[in-house]
Design brief:
alpha/beta; 5-stranded mixed β-sheet; 3-stranded mixed β-sheet
């Protein structure tokens, strides 16, 4: 079991090597925690304190079950605030912790330099704590049912808060900031309800850069922990244990995509052709889609067993697709975090009238099984009038709508 003194000794080993290699990091507060604490942090998406909602409990249960059955394990968790916070499982061995510390330092370097995070709040832990207190106050005043139903409806649009990386943008300013538009222009919401929607929007915008840089961020950390471990004078026993953990982190199990393996391979490819300058340029500028466009070679596609898998194929087997098709499919999957791109149709949306939303079709139909439930929540709880979404289904223009009572799907 790790102790604080052991952790500080291991930090003293890895810190100078990371600095000499060109990594830069501000103050990091390291915290040793139990596995259950890490699961709780992960279920809150990395923030130690957030408002209560049943979805966080569901996420905690899923993570704990996966850990109990040894299906997965979270070794560390880094919070992008100032100072940075790094939570590390105290049950990690000293050998494992060396690799994990290298991984953490690379994450901090990535957060510090990537343009994606230049506009994120450095005080989100305090802001989230304030949100939690305020929402708890609203629960006492207006009741659990009123607050919970509002949060349920807000979650439907929580991923649709605009693509701008500047957190200070006015709510609803971007057409893609659907939640912000509803918060400001809904004809039925009370002021306390608008306030909660804007809290959800603020937290969602904080998480958005992480949503679009999973492969880039984890791949960068994997590239550096591998590189730094080779530079340390380690015993054969320690080297073997580190190699065992690394092999687990980068294991490839098709059809699942391993961001550690794929991202790490792409950064290795950039290093071979462009040196560290190419690696740092990619860190500074690229999200997942950009990294794939820039560095995903045919050789990496083969080594990572990438293919275009279909659910109807037995055992997830499929004919081997051409690299060009695989690359295009992967870019489509990670673009906009793989979330349908929606915008407010302001010319059709008026107070006391229907809320019109445009789905920008990218070749993939919306889930018409879930859609009626989502639109009903929006119509009943957030807008107080019909909500319509303009989309393409099976090659034809559709207008799907719900007025809180009746669902309709019309060919437009």
């Amino acid at each position: 079991m790790l102790t604080q003194s052991k952790l500080e000794r291991l930090i003293g080993q890895i810190w100078p090597a990371a600095q000499l290699s060109g990594l830069e990091f501000e103050h990091i507060h390291f915290e040793l925690v139990d596995a259950q604490d890490i699961h709780a942090l992960a279920s809150y998406h990395g923030l130690p304190i957030r408002y209560s909602h049943w979805s966080f409990g569901k996420s905690f249960g899923r993570l704990k079950t996966a850990y109990d059955y040894r299906l997965s394990q979270i070794y560390e968790l880094v919070v992008n605030t100032r100072p940075f916070y790094a939570f590390i499982d105290r049950m990690n061995t000293e050998a494992q912790t060396l690799l994990i510390l290298a991984h953490v330092l690379a994450h901090v370097d990535y957060f510090s330099h990537s343009r994606l995070f230049a506009g994120t709040s450095h005080d989100m832990i305090h802001n989230a704590s304030r949100h939690a207190r305020q929402i708890a106050y609203f629960r006492r005043i207006y009741g659990d049912e009123a607050v919970e139903s509002l949060l349920d409806a807000a979650m439907v649009m929580a991923d649709h808060v605009g693509t701008s990386l500047i957190m200070t943008n006015e709510p609803g300013e971007e057409p893609s900031d659907v939640l912000g538009y509803i918060a400001l222009h809904s004809p039925v919401l009370q002021e306390w309800e608008r306030e909660i929607l804007l809290m959800i929007r603020e937290e969602s915008k904080y998480f958005w850069p992480q949503r679009v840089s999973k492969i880039s961020n984890e791949g960068y950390a994997t590239f550096w922990h591998t590189r730094l471990m080779r530079q340390l004078p380690l015993s054969p026993e320690i080297t073997w244990e580190i190699a065992a953990l690394n092999s687990k982190l980068v294991a490839i199990q098709p059809p699942q995509l391993n961001p550690y393996a794929l991202g790490g391979q792409i950064y290795e490819n950039l290093y071979r052709h462009q040196g560290l300058a190419g690696v740092f340029d990619a860190r500074n500028l690229l999200d997942d889609a950009g990294l794939i466009r820039t560095g995903l070679s045919d050789d990496i596609i083969r080594r990572c067993h990438l293919d275009v898998y279909r659910e109807q194929d037995s055992n997830f087997s499929s004919p081997h697709a051409e690299p060009t098709r695989i690359r295009a499919q992967l870019i489509q999957d990670v673009e906009h975090a793989g979330i349908p791109f929606l915008t407010i149709m302001k010319e059709l949306s008026r107070p006391m009238g229907a809320l019109n939303i445009q789905h920008h079709f990218d070749g993939r139909d919306l889930d018409f099984y879930e859609l009626p439930f989502a639109l009903k929540l929006l119509a009943l709880r957030l807008w107080g009038a019909p909500v319509q979404i303009h989309t393409v289904k099976q090659g034809m223009h559709h207008i799907a709508s719900h007025d809180g009572t009746r669902w309709a799907d019309e060919v437009g």
